[in-house]
Amino acid sequence: MNSLRKKLFFIIGGMIGVAMLVILGYSMYSIRLDEKIVSQSHWYDLQVSMRFMEAFMEDIENMLLSDTKEDENMEKIIRGGEGIDWHMALIRKKREFGKEIKKYQFLDGMFLYDSKSRVFVSQVGDYVTFDMYSSIKENMAYITQYFEKGNIKNEWSAMKLEEQYYLIRMIKVKTVYICAWMKPEHLLQGIENQGKSHTYFLLCDGRARVLTPLECLGEIRIEGEQVFVDQERYRVYGYDSTRQNLSLKVLVKGSHRQEVFWYAAFPILGIVCMGIMILLLVWRLVRGVVFEPIDHMMLKKTLEQNKATLQFLQLQIKPHFLNNCLSLIRNLILFEQYEEAENAVLVLSDYTRASLRPDILVTVEREAEQVRSWYELQKLRLKNRIHVDIWLEDGVGKKQIPTMLLHTFAENAAKHFGREDGIIEIEIRAGFRKMDEQEKGMEITIKDNGAGFPEDVLLKLREGKEIVDRNGIKHIGITSIMKRLDILYEGAASIEICNRDNGGSEVRICLLSQPVNPAPGSDTVPAE
Amino acid sequence: MKKYITALCMMGILALGTLGAAVFGHSAELEYTKLVAAVPFTGIPREDVEMVQEKINEITQNELGITVEFPEFSTSGQYFEKAMLMLSTPEQLDIMMAGFGAFMDCYVDGKLLPLDRLLEQYGQDIARQVGEEQIHSCDIHGVLYGIPVNGDYTQQRNCYVMRKDILEKYGLDPYGIRTMEDLEHVFKTVREKEPEITVLSSGAEPGNTLLSANLDFLDTSSGISLTVCEEDGRLVSAFESEEYKSALQRVHRWYLKGYLNEDVFGVAEDVYSRVKRGELFAYTERKAAWSGEHENFKIGDMEMVRVSPEPSSLMHRGYASMPYVITSNSASPEASMKLLNLFYSNPEIENLLCYGVEGVHYKKTKDGHITHAQKEREDPFLWNNYNMPNQYISHVWEGNDLDFWEQVKTKNESAGKGPKMGFNFDYSSVAAEYARVMDIYHDYRWILESGLDNPEEGGKKMMDEMKSSGLDLIIREEQKQFDNWRKRNGKGE
């Protein structure tokens, strides 16, 4: 039964294994898919943010261009000179700057520089430190030169002043430069998605210079799809602006595979654990649900076998028969037929010895011998009134059959002869069954010329029911045989009992296979 | 069998646990009224303010069933801007400290609630703590709109803060500076001897200019006033007054002498940073002469000394300079008044507001004063306590006499009070002209009050522009209201 359990175990284990493989395969596939989706989603987010920045920068550009149209103030400034009017024009410009800075959230500063009078009018927003302002103010010459060179006449550009980057948009009206500027870090603040650790947003210009350097990343140039910082790998997602010379990049730590692995690992681990638990459950349950009933059934069978054996044993001891024989022998002694008496004693001792062996199986030869012994003993009583004829096919003699198989029916025939006169003729044949030249078991027939079986008894026998006669005594001989055949041949044996046309009965026993191993504790009788 | 029982038990425990958590979690949320109080905590770290907020809530929840929230911008440098912004949205804002001119601006925008009835019903303690006359200083057209804080209202005019080390270097005695002449002498010396240093800052923001130290109408704690009151009760344009004109002359003279080389058009750093960097010798201020605030103090590593040469006098800022108001965005004016009442009357709350949490920010000393709780860290609330409702019931910082607040009260009484004190001009009927005139002033002051341009010419130009923008109309309206106010308060001739 262990093998059955193992089989079950392997089947279920196999099923779970297959399921896990399928899940793993699917996970790998979806990881790859996920990579693409994440990449696209980043790109889209960056695009949205960049569009926002572009729009902002264009707004400021427009403001700058419209503000510097030559209005009264500008004229005065350009005319220059000294005096209150000029000062007031400058002051009014400064206040204008202040208003614009308040209007635009990320506009950090505006200034005006008159190259003629060298006056510098400036206003800054809250993000700006005094150092930033000083950087701009003190590098005015450099800024204007750069502008004149033609690099930043019509668009925003990033300038590096004293280790910091500034986004500058400048225009020139006659001798006056007007500029709106902002710190890229401030602009980045507006779109940064805070909260994700190990994710860094960087604003770069068209030349891959990082405008918003972060201390934790150090000096890096971003080119391509990944970058290494301190041995750590970062994936780069970027979006290049089409309208401004800027590019927005986000650095995400770690490889995508690694990241997702952790997401996938846990569910898979969970499934594996579940699988193992199911397996264990099955192991434990199967024992109770499947194996025990089987064991139970086996037990029942064994019990039955033992019962049959017991019954069989019971049959062996027939004190009535023994007494009769002894009486007959006594008579022989009384009549001084000493040779016959000695003979009879020998036959009786043979018979009894063989009878008392508790073997379940015996060779055909032995069984025939037993029947002959019984025949001799019957002759003591019946003299010539009984005739038993036994014919065995060549080779059948060594085959095994259940004990008492032939004897029971022979005895039965003699017991139920039915008449006080006449000769009891019993014919026993044992041979091989042949099917298409193949030997397929044995066939045994026992014929007699007695009264035959009554119909009701036949019926009962065929149905396997108990036979109880008028006096309430159970006749268990044939039913016992039938039970034993059932146990020993597991359905490969059959008994047909019928009455012959000329009177008497015929018992045909077909044994299609070898008998199975009998219950432990018994062995077969070696041929004597 | 045993296995089934165990399994059932575990499931039972789990179910009960979740049920319990749900029930208890839910019941922890009781119903409190939430009020948003914009108390200024400018420059104080947010975590410290939150500590105070928590402790205050313990008291207010207990006594009034109110939860108080200090909004984000309480600690920001743009307190007033952000507060005004919040008012222009429907966001909840119950209580606010509407100082520095915001009082009238809020009123004109229709953002203030009248307080007479509320004060009567829920603010009895306030009335007791603050006093009739003080409270009515916050009337507008005879209706109460604000509640003044209890604190030091005195201001010393004409103060100059200078670097002690430079004075000592050139043998200049700070306590010998008693007149403006003495002052100018000091400036001259420093200019000659230390050409790299700017002698005096003319100040970048209104209220910080040279003139606001002397001219009350430019003192922005109450908002810039366009008029001054003559002896006969007549209001005249402030910018045409002798006071203003002579002040401008003085400043222009100083400019020409090189004491002020302000970059008027650029961006100026604040005076403290400039002093720390060694770029500035002196600046002016209009300071309350606390005895808790020594006349010698430090800015960074620089030792500074404050002098106030004549003409200097102790002036009263005006009780309407820093009122607490209940705004029209309030969720519950009644609850707000109750809360204010508690703020004004509960010393525990007051100390939390003024000085922080005991043991964390300040600690008591043996003789009944308080001082910094840790040597390494100054009490961050210390310099902000003047913003708080009722300092009279708070602790006394070490170094001051124990009856400090009594002294303050006395000083308040004795300080000089201008004839317009207690009068609040409602400019809503001339709002457009008022805005234009103010704009003109804010343009011209850059060049006039920094001494950059000729004050006569500049002053005249400014007046011309103001007049053509309706200045006279404004003055007439103010005169009308002023006369009414004087009649109401029995201040007739």
In round numbers, the mean pLDDT of chain B is: 85
The strand count of chain A comes to 18
Q: Which fold does the CATH topology of the domain at 306-511 in chain A refer to?
A: Heat Shock Protein 90
Mind telling me the CATH class of the domain at 306-511 in chain A?
Alpha Beta
Give the distance, in angstroms, between the N- and C-terminal Cα atoms of chain A: 38 Å
Domains of chain B (count): 2
Give the chain pair forming the largest contact, with residue counts. A-B, 19 and 20 residues
Q: Percent of residues of chain A in helical segments?
A: 40-55%
Oligomer: heterodimer
Class by alpha and beta content of chain B: alpha+beta
Give the strand content of chain A: 15-25%
The CATH homologous superfamily name of the largest domain in chain B equals Periplasmic binding protein-like II
What is the alpha-carbon Rg of chain A in Å?
58 Å
Largest sheet of chain B: 6 strands, mixed
Describe the structure.
The complex is a heterodimer of chains A (528) and B (493). By secondary structure, chain A is of the alpha+beta class. In chain A, 51% of the residues lie in helices and 22% in strands. Chain A has helices at residues 2-67, 72-79, 83-103, 130-138, 140-148, 184-191, 256-316, 319-334, 338-356, 364-382, 405-415, 455-463, 477-489, and strands at residues 109-114, 119-124, 157-161, 164-173, 176-182, 199-205, 226-229, 232-240, 246-253, 361-363, 386-392, 400-402, 424-435, 438-448, 467-468, 474-475, 493-499, 505-511. Chain A has a 5-stranded antiparallel β-sheet, with helices on both faces. In chain A, strands 11-13-14-18-17 form a 5-stranded mixed β-sheet. In chain A, β1 (109-114) and β2 form a beta hairpin. In chain A, α10 runs parallel beside α11 (405-415). The radius of gyration of chain A is 58 Å and the shape is rod-shaped. The model of chain A is unreliable at 521-528 (pLDDT under 50). In chain B, the strands form 5 sheets. In chain B, strands 7, 8, 11, 12, 13 and 14 form a 6-stranded mixed β-sheet that branches. A 5-stranded mixed β-sheet of chain B has the order 2-1-3-15-6. Chain B has a two-stranded antiparallel ribbon with strand order 4-5. The model of chain B has no long low-confidence stretch (mean pLDDT 85). Chain B has 493 residues and is an alpha+beta fold. At the A-B interface, α3, β2 and α4 of A face α15 and α16 of B.
